[in-house]
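Hey, can you fold this?
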Amino acid sequence: MHTRRRLLTAVIAAGFGLALAFTAGTAAAAPKKIVLLVSGTLGDKSFFDSANHGMQLIREKFGDAVRTRVIEMGYDQSKWQPSLEDIAGQDWDLIIVGTYQMPDILAQVAEEYPKRAFLIFDSSMDYTKGANKNVYSIVYKQNEASYLAGVMAEGMVKSGAIPAADGRALGFLGGMDIPVINDFLTGYVGGAQAVDPAARVAVSYIGSFADAAKGKELAMAQYRAGVGIGFNVAGQAGLGQLAAAKEMSRLAIGVDSDQEAIFRTSDPATADKVVTSVLKRVDNSLLRAVELMQQGKLPLGSSEALGLKEGAVGIVKNAVYEKLVPPAVRQSVDTAEADIASGKIVVPTAFGMTTAQLAALRDKVRP
């Protein structure tokens, strides 16, 4: 009788401890099973592939101690919630999703499965009134890395590294007109204006993260209109920008993954046109989150914004960058990078800007 009572007390205490751990915003146990649900498909050579690489880094770091799985849900949004509910009903220790379309779906599923731990990257949850206590959010200071790209691109234009005949304007090709994409834009414009207050940036939105054909069409229109170097922030659709750069012999800036390296073997002519890529290090941030969870320090029930200082964003500085970007421009980029990390430079952000303010920014820099 006493033994049963002690056992019951221990079970109640353990349950209370688990509830307390989630309430306090810290994971209770190290994860042994981790799953990533991709709200699209792999092979975009940018955002989702970076997340997949994060799962590879987790496997490399923890080996057999952690089991991982990656599931592609496709672009049919009607399938996302059933897929997430199905996975949440299984015994995964950490369930990872990403992108701006997922918070509402995740909020419903996380409430249904309060003892599951969830992570969402590139978007944040509503934590008011104690909601989403079992969800950790990662958002990125993509504006910081984009600022460096703006410094580089406008520096190349101003120095003559980009021939005047190719165009004096910068290009920006966004997947959709949404805050996270516009955060790239505001940083990019801020960096360009730091080099030349009169910098011009042509802005187009594809309206999709999958339509590479339309991305190519819009990028080619920008190049024809006098854009010397274009920056794609459009996932798989942004590959159209790289195809246009190759076809028209212009320069491009990749996004999320090192797109020059990705094309180096399969299509070196395209790779040669990718001066750098603005990295949103989804891979590093997922590894960091799992490391924190292994230590019992993952702050469930909260959101973190990660930037240059945390190694969560940056730009690629490879052989093509060294070859095409003049030394003085590279030095300007390095200085800006250090000043952002130290807080000396505060990069403008689209978050908190009104629609009218964004429209005014685009109008101001329009070629």
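Oh, and this one too while you're at it.
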Amino acid sequence: MVLGADGVQMGSRFVASEESSAHIDFKNEVVKSQEGDTMLTLKEITPVRLIKNDFYARIEVKYNEGASIDELKTLLGRGRAKKGMFEGDLKEGELEIGQVSGTLNDIKPAGEIVQSVMQEFYLAKEEINQNNRFNI
């Protein structure tokens, strides 16, 4: 907030919540992931960050072969995100998640996630107000 932010995007954190409609296998893959397990790809179609899996490896092969946008679209097909994130196909599904996934270690209730974020905010706000000339 000191730098002007009005909010925070937390989609990846809420994927790993008990209430998320994501498949449990995908949720477990998210919390199992480590730094470097995701990669930004398919920038020519629509940039997406994916957990590396067999499907991602096939994308990389296509890039190395100099695939056209149409070839990449054909490989992507339809419904691949649903297949991965909501049906739990960890090999051939598109496993979209943010880079922050490497820092997530558990699946929690959404209310607990919100409560934790608010506690961290109030602690940070108190520290900023005590140590700086900024008051928020």
